[in-house]
Amino acid sequence: MKVPKTVRVRANELHTQLHEHNYRYYTKDDPLISDAEYDLLLRELQDIEAEYPQLISPDSPTQRVGAPPLKSFGEVRHEVRMLSLGNAFSDEELADFDHRVLEKLDIGCVDYAAEPKLDGLAVSLLYEDGKLVRAATRGDGETGEDVTQNVRTIASVPLKLEGKNIPDVLEVRGEVYLSHAGFQELNRQAVAEGLNPFVNPRNAAAGSLRQLDPGMTAKRPLEMFCYGVGKATGGSLADTHMEILAQLRDWHLRVYEDVRKVNGLDGCVEYYRYYEQQREKLPFEIDGVVFKVDSLALQEQLGLVARAPRWAIARKFPAQEKETTVLGIDIQVGRTGALTPVARLEPVFVGGVTVTNATLHNQDEIERKDVRAGDAVIVRRAGDVIPEVVRVIREKRKKGTRRFKLPKQCPVCGSHVVRIEGESVARCSGGLICSAQRKEAIKHFASRRAMDIEGLGDKLVEQLVEKDLVRDVSDLYGLSADDLAGLERMGEKSADNLLQALKSSKQTTLARFIYSLGIREVGETTAQILAREFGDLAVLKKVDFERLQAVRDIGPVAAENIVEFFREAHNREVIEKLTDKRKANIHWLAEKKPKQQPLAGKTFVLTGTLSIPRDEMKEKLQALGAKVSGSVSKKTNYVVAGENPGSKYDKATALGVTVLDEAACNELMSEAGDK
Ligand code: IVH
User: Fold this and answer.
1) What is the 84 CA–ligand 1 centroid distance (Å)?
2) 368, part of any domain
3) Are residues 89 and 217 in the same domain?
4) Alpha carbon 407 to chain centroid, angstroms
5) Annotated catalytic, 117?
6) What is the mean pLDDT of the chain?
7) Which pTM was predicted?
8) Contact 337, 444 (CB under 8 A)
């Protein structure tokens, strides 16, 4: 069937528009239209192509869904070898690199282009006349695999370049990777389907790209950043790396925004330090930063050694995953009686610290990972998170190891262990007769966000419970200087300070007091809601389930726990001792119910670095009635983004949630406050 001119013109228009919207959404992160509008345009083009298949071209925006499966990947010979990078694991090694560069060039200082080292896999994209004609993995640097059909499904890879002076043949290189959010989503699906989860984002990205069925790759949220050019003919490239990256951006290729020109070794070290800090906040994994001599002429002079250029280096972060051995598995009993299995490890330096313990979470996790005493395991420690066992190296398992089972009795008090249907946590049923639970309850009570008793650290609490000086939290306020004198590491001065801290903690707020009681599922926010709603402890003590359920943001589980807690005679007694004027005399000012709550019903999420601590911003918003949540969903009204926002920012833009900067948020609050 011949294609009518009007249809051909419309198809062309749709091509242009869809390429542009795709670019705005995936590369610039700055969409012009909603997802629904985009879908409408795409549908229109799909309908036209269904009627006139001769209009389907490889660079059509409809061709991202995946071509038919392959039997195997073809081979691709790289015309210009894909090199790897030398590594520097310390500032000294980085200084050695800089020294070698300067010596060979015989100059005093050079500019480097500094960029993050993405942890994915290297891919080469070949564009001819601006059209993507081939994509290949690095392979051994000389030959790779032809993954063209799979790479076509990656939304941030342009099928067609835009802009001026595009070389006739342009081979671009970059890293294909999965964001943390994409990785988690993929693993959530894998577990739901009964499959083994991927061990890290890099393996998941590699596995996703090397699917023989491009339709499978299309379902994986792969992304790509470009970091260099292999070959360019029939056009001119700039003569510095920084300018080349700017050209790539102009041609609609995706290049990381914070690639910086830095001066000399000092500039490199400063960039490295900055990314060491930022690493945890980035929406994707990086394993270091890369420095490249900026001038291509100087690069040329420096040349290569073996498989790596002399003009570039990767300054690597300390590894976050390391192998070690499980010496044994212990059980920790928490404040609410939750039993947590913990692996005792052969000490190992990982993520910048020496790790001796790693959490195994719960029985389900242990079963899934089948961690046993004696096993060789991979341990991961990233940022401030608790170290965890990622997986067992099964090939190294020795004979005679046994599957681990949670005990039926609490290892601390001997009470039986219960596990409620549908809950992953097993608990000691001993309540306050269990000294482990008592210790944890006291630590929680004294903690900074609860009663804030300075100087009452973990070690001290343990001694107080072991010596039977403190049975419940109210006993803290009966402690004397004599009681404290006999304790380890307790001088006269620190005893004095502690007594003073106890005294000043008596003046508090109702919200803090409720939080400090450690009622299950009642965190800081819920405690604040309860304080605001009921205003008086006497009222809260008598409240029933229905009344609690009527309070916004109090779920059935928290409501049940609250009622249960106040019904328990022992808890009432402790509260009595804590608040009685003649006893501990903990007191607070009457809760003022704010007259107006102009932001009631609005949910905010905070991300990035603000000029004031996040907690402070949270309190300000809450004071106006807003809810502050930790994760972005369709229900979020505003995301407040400070400097270097994290993945929440990406999620907000993807979901079309309004993003405010700090100034706009302050404005919104002051407007709301004026109403
Ligand atoms: S440049 C001539 N830049 O690291 C240098 N590589 O060990 C070639 N990588 O295979 C690579 N981020 O997969 C370069 N900003 C970046 C990079 C980067 C990640 C990977 C790439 C390469 C490996 C080198």
Assistant:
1) 6
2) yes
3) yes
4) 33
5) yes
6) 91
7) 0.60
8) no
